[in-house]
Fold each of these.
Amino acid sequence: MAFSRYCTPISTPAPALFAYSPKLPQTSSPWHNVRNSRLVLGTSIPNCLRLRGGRGRGDCHVHVVESKSRLRARAVLDKDADDISSQANELVPKKSVSVILLAGGKGKRMGANIPKQYLPLLGQPIALYSFHIFSLMSEVKEIVVVCDPSYRDIFEEARNSMTVYLKFASPGKERQDSVFNGLQEVDQTTELVCVHDSARPLVLSGNVKKVLKDAWVHGAAVLGVPVKATIKEASNDSFVTRTLNRQTLWEMQTPQVIKPSLLRKGFEVVHREGLEVTDDVSIVEHLKHPVYITEGSYSNIKVTTPDDILLAERILNQR
């Protein structure tokens, strides 16, 4: 599944109406730039009125350059742009993250007699690779493994000296049902919910930390990589209808990290309207809340076929 960098589009102001002060800070963060130039509906501005934002690094001057008796304006810089910038420099607190590790899939495409996430990868079950990564992170307080009860012993035996809590939930009929079941086991004081596919054993701890930090700032974030292939849209009878601009397309991965209040509100909408979603941040998109894409690694593959296992082995041997 591919999305543009921000899954919820945000409109920018019309340059014909406003001239921005050079005091507006520049930053490499696309989200910060969008927030600094965002206009909010509802302000009436008489002729030649000059609006000045607050003081400090986030000051923004707006000048009416079109002479009319009244302008129905789209408003100026949100004050919380500075708040977002300052939060970006903070670390995610220790023991503030609950991981929902999805390990209940059947893996029919693998053609094996056990689910793919429990097949051995260089002598260790695939699901345990990410399990160990999360268990060693200071930000993680608990791991909720969503799996069939018959496979719980794999995780219990791998606990060893883990300092995080280990919980279990039963898988649902669809992915969104499994995530919902896992969410019911999450500690009520947790500040971020991190959902990960156990069939992605090659995720890097550095990328996990990046997406946690972005979710801490923006409320929802997902690992993704820019699409490299040409993507075409086709009709039901397999004729090309258009070629999509890959410069704006991203392939989604996991972890997908969301503040629990957003995830719970999103599930309320999904259940009320009978929606089906194929990934976790799509639940938040139904709330019209922006989702930030944290650039990850192309090596964070999902093991789905026998060829994927061979590729995963090569990647691990090169690390």
Note: The longest strand covers residues 250-258.
Amino acid sequence: MSDDSSPPESEASAVYRRMRRVFGDPSMRSSDARKRAAGARTRGASSPFGAGRDPAGLDDVIDSLTRVMGWTSPLARGELLSAWSSIVGEDVAARSQPVGIEEGVLSIQCDSTAWATQLRMMQGDILTSIVRTFPDAGVASVRILGPGAPSWKRGPRSVPGRGPRDTYG
């Protein structure tokens, strides 16, 4: 006989202790409850009232969204086209307008050949101002276009003739 005063452990209590060790507290018996508990431990800052949940400003959110999505260059190009008068001034903007940006080349359409010549002389200053103000636009050069000349072609079966002659003289 042994002098142990503790009663022998029943098989049921041994199974209970083993299950508690394997599966945790009996109040969390369901797998859903275990997932919730594990998620609460890993979630941390994303809990509704946890640390790091201060609201962010809308401008910060939109800036990060445009960076993540890669929209900075198209947005800068659109902003450049809309801010044309602030880049070149009101007088020049009244007589010229940016047509578009393709492959790093900004095309500018002028009202007259005189204004096209004037803008060609200002081309370096315009490009410097654009690169300084809108670096994300990706403008590497500027192409100045004169006014669109009228077409003297009439109909689908037009043949090359002697031209308009002294129309501009």
Note: The beta strands are 96-102, 105-110, 141-145.
Amino acid sequence: MKIEKIGSRIAGLMKQRGISLDDLVERTGLHREFLGQIGHEKEYFPSLGPLLKISRALGVRLGTLLDDQVSEDPLIVRKGEQKKEIDMLPDKDKPVALKFFSLGRGKTDRHMEPFFIEILPESAQEKKLSTHEGEEFIVVTEGEVEVLYGTETHLLKAGDSIYYNSVVPHYVSCASQTPACIYAVLYIPD
């Protein structure tokens, strides 16, 4: 889904639920300037953390913000048929750092958010820690990945995995000059 559609969906849910920008600021703890960009051209998301906080504040699953289609079980995504959902930028004036491809797109009753993520070297430039409810499981398939987890730093290579509690501040970045690829599964409790 294009980022503009996510912004439009958030704005629509806010209107539908009678939630003002001030209400969203209070419910999410996110900066007013950041939230004020929703639905505008210069919109950006530095990580999934803000989207998770927004979805929680609106009383919807993260998938509700990302999905634009409904699929029947089982949901199969073939290699090469993945569709990019969202680009993460560390700042609105910076290059793309992470490219997210949803692997659960359209499964309306899901409790996990599975992604294939291409992590670009630009991800290492500005490491903004994120925190949200739930757990994350990551498997590196290509390249090298650095995971900041609280005060710890972990270097992962192809074939390595990490599983952690997402309430601990964390950040995942590329640890080399060539892109890295991971599969990541986020569990967000109801």
Note: The first strand starts at residue 84 and ends at 88.
